Amino acid sequence: MPRILIAGIAQEISSFNPVSTEYELFSIQRGTEVLEMNRGTTTAIAGALALFEAHEDVEVVTTFAAKAVSAGPMSADCWSQLSTEFLDSLKPHVGKVDAIYLSLHGSMGGETDLDPEGWVLEQTRLLFGDNVPIVFSLDLHGILTAKMLHHGNAVTAYHTYPHVDLHDTGKRAASLLLKIVDGAEPVIARVRVPAIVRGDELKTDTGCFGEQIRQIKELEASEKILAGGFLIGNPFTDVPELCCQAFVVTDGDQQRAENIALELASEFWANRELMQSDLVPLEEAVSKAATMNGPVIFTDAADAPSSGSPGDSNSIISEMFHTEYPNSVLAAVTDAEVVKLAVAAGVGGKFRASIGGSLDPRFTPLELDFKVKLLSDGNYILESWGVPQNSGITAVLTSGVFTLVVTSRPVSQFDRSLFLGHGIDPSRYHSIIVKSPHCQPQFFDEWSEHNFNVDAPGSTSANLHSLGHSICARPIFPLDEQVDFNPAVEIYRRH
Ligand SMILES: [Zn+2]
Question: Would the pLDDT of 193 be above 90?
Fold first, then answer.
């Protein structure tokens, strides 16, 4: 009866977010909490659990799963505490488990460690030795490093963007792990592509990148291919190994792994120009939308908390305010100080305050007169995955044409949860600012007249030139003029 250990640690950071991630930002499940809180949900750990629990002869041990919303790099104290707890949770199981599944992200980053997931794999390997297979899974935006590949036996990754296959990814990792326990001998080929990408063509249902993922899925269904993936990296995680990359895991067939990985990487490189964002200048978007019937969506990916921004941008509402925008506007802004003032004023109360730029000095605070419409504890359910969210104490404020959901902390806005959770139907507004690079069509696009992908400032701007990368290996497309792609296959195997 194989005993399988499950653990996880995940966050995605923007190196350009000035607010560092502290330990308190992580929600942590310990011991059997990992089972109880994941089972039946849509997480990668839930997918792995579902597969293991379908095998009567498999026994599962869970130790530690930490997850935080995206933010700036982890502070030294945060990583020190988190990494110590992670390791301590594993130690009692050394010598007592036959295999390990780690649910990771791949785009974590700390002030003291630019490859935290590499460290996790290295330390897990050191503890459990060479004979315990370790399979890990990553987000599609993960940055797979040499250290991770060196210490893990195999890897799986999300195949969808927007991400809707977390569960399946965990399941694939679990299935792969059982194959290794049964004697499969994974060989990993990977090819790095010196590019960072963003934009609509990366949507796997409709964009050109999706075609590559479909090829990978077909391959995964064939004999001897244990896993494959294409990681597009998180362009805002400025770490030495930031890039895009193809990986293929076969059962002992190195040549086949090499050939497929090379082919995938070359195809991706050929499409690199397509996989950049087409952005509309902020002023142009606002002036055009002013005359439209609506609803109009303003996609503000530059301040997307799900990508690692603090969510405190006011750049679109400031432009609207200064140009006397005539239509109703719905937006969310992180501003803990304004929330405190709203609580002090009470429901129905009025106050004047500056909003925006409380966390990122890129934004100039905008002074407005507010009326408090609603106050909440910030607890609501994510409509995408059905899991609890918390935006801290939250206030719904009105000011002229604006209705602002003001949160105490940044929360993901890749669906309508924050609005719905505060009694707001976004389709009732003329203009809705959505701080997410992409949303599934049913959330906003299907009922709106137009979606402006706005070139606003922010720490997760799709205008990649605007960010100031200083750590990633250069040259890299599109930051540098002359970038050559000389494909090289790297091989990793542990037997
Ligand atoms: Zn992602």
Answer: yes
Report yes or no: 444 and 432 within 8 Å, Cβ to Cβ. yes
How far, in Å, from the CA of 107 to the mean position of ligand 1? 9
Two tokens at 163? Answer: 């991400």
Encode pLDDT of 393-447 as tens digits. Answer: 999 999 999 999 999 999 999 999 999 999 999 999 999 999 999 888 999 999 9
pLDDT, one tens digit per residue, over 246-298 is 999 999 999 999 999 999 999 999 999 999 989 999 999 999 999 999 999 99
354 Cα–ligand 1 center, Å = 32
Residue type, 120: V
Assign 3-state DSSP to the chain and report helix, strand, coil percentages, each to 5. 30, 25, 45
Residue 50, token pair as written in the block: 């579902």
Average of per-residue pLDDT across 320-333:
98
Total Cβ atoms within 10 A of residue 227: 25
CA 387 to centroid of ligand 1, rounded, Å: 17
User: Ligand 1 mean position to 288 CA, how many Å?
Assistant: 31
> Around 391, how many Cα atoms within 13 Å sit in the side-chain half-sphere?
32
Residue with tokens 């918390």: 390
180 alpha carbon to ligand 1 midpoint, in Å?
27
Contacts of 291 (CB under 8 A, 6+ apart): none
Ligand 1 midpoint to CA 105 (Å): 8
Residue 420 sits at φ, ψ, to 5 deg, of -60, -40
Q: Residue 426, Cα to own-chain centre: how many angstroms? A: 24
Q: Which residues surround ligand 1, an ion (CB under 5 A)?
A: 139, 141
Q: How far is the CA of 233 from the centre of ligand 1 (A)?
A: 8
Residue 17 has pLDDT above 90, yes or no: yes
Look at residue 385 in the predicted model and tell me its pLDDT. 83
450 Cα–ligand 1 center, Å = 25
What's the confidence (pLDDT) of residue 422? 98
